[in-house]
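Incident log, structure service

09:12 report received: a user says their structure output differs between two submissions of the same chain.
09:20 pulled the input from the user's history:
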Amino acid sequence: MLRSSTFTDSGPRCSCLPVSQTLNSMDTVLMGSLQHCCCQLPKMGDTWAQLPWPGPPHPAMLLVSLLLAAGLMHSDAGTSCPVLCTCRNQVVDCSSQRLFSVPPDLPMDTQNLSLAHNRITAVPPGYLTCYMELRVLDLRNNSLMELPRGLFLHAKRLAHLDLSYNNFSHVPADMFQEAHGLVHIDLSHNPWLRRVHPQAFQGLVQLRDLDLSYGGLASLSLEALEGLPGLVTLQIGGNPWVCGCTMEPLLKWLRNRIQRCTADSQLAECRGPPEVEGAPLFSLTEESFKACHLTLTLDDYLFIAFVGFVVSIASVATNFLLGITANCCHRWSKASEEEEI
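09:34 re-ran on a clean worker, output below:
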């Protein structure tokens, strides 16, 4: 049996297990119930000569030591992989597992997280707080309706975010708060997406690719896009755009950037008003919005007032003549009846 070793001058007292007990517990160790050993090595100042010579190492003890070391390294690195997920080279793949909620306790050094093709309905607040190395987050094809505020507060390195094929109805102002490193955002194929807040993408100066295609957008504020100096690709096709006067500023801005910004111009069509229904969005020119800039001068207002006055006088005169005519007809009819009698 191994003796207990006590170092009163360096910390807590620790006792190691006997060899026989260690051999009897091999099955338990191999099944994964490894625990941290509390025994500590003596300090450099301790006299090694005072320690007894343990003799040649027992093979079982050597194996236990290796397993314990592996367990310590595994725990310290924080690389535990969630159930139903695969983890390799800082990539955690939990896709197509019919998950209804996000998996907890991801490896701390996760850089690429895929939760695609599941049935996730919500992401808890602070879920990404501990994963500061995260660069790619794939949440496509789930049942998400919103994201919690401040979700990306600590995900400073997040560059690619895929939220396509979900049930988002709007993009609020704080949806991408503090996610200044985003380069690619995919919000396509959200059929209930009706509104994008004018400040939804505020601060995303590195954003290059934005996909808003195949949603339910009828209009989009220019303010939502003009704060994206690095935008290269914009996908907006497949939406029911209403090409009224409110769309003119956005279309003018897009026409000026069409050389630097690739857009799906063939897929973006107007659904209204009726006079431009089916027309490609980017085919509309300033002439198409000419009616939006009509202004009336003082002479125009005076002319309209004069015409209104004339029409009212004519209406009164017409009613007067009709009244006289009706009265005459009534008298003539009465006189004719008296003559016959």
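09:41 both user submissions now match this output. Likely a transient worker issue. Closing.
09:42 reviewer note: Residues 98 and 157 are 28 Å apart (CA to CA). The chain has five helices and 13 strands.
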